Amino acid sequence: MGNYFVGTKTSSLELGGIVIGEIYKNEEWGHPKPNAATFTIAYRYMNRKKWHPTIKAGLTPMIGFNGTAHMRIGIFF
Q: Of 28, 50, 56, 62, which one has the greatest count of Cβ atoms within 10 A?
C-alpha cells in the first residue's frame, strides 16, 4: 500500500491506497470473509529535529465484500 501525505513537513494527513485481498478465516477475530478491501487515513506529526518524537494516529478499516466491516485503530510514538 502506498501512502500520500497532505500538509507540511511537520504536520500532515496520511492517506493510504486501497488494497484488495483475501482475508483468511479466523472466527475469533471477526474479520470480513472471504475477500476485503482496506485503506488508511491518519494524522502524522514529525518534528525533524534530532531526538524529537514522531507521533501518528490513524484508522484502517477492513471492509468485506459481503457487507461486514472491522475497524482498526493505531497509535505510533
A: 62
> Please, what is the Cα angle at 35 between 61 and 70, to 5 degrees?
25
CA separation for the pair 19, 34 (Å, rounded): 14
The sign one gets for the Cα dihedral 63, 71, 28, 20 is positive
Take residue 15 and report the three cell numbers written for it: 492517506
Per DSSP, helices labelled H in 1-77 are: none
DSSP code for 8? -
DSSP state of 25: P
| Residue carrying the nine cell digits 457487507 | 67
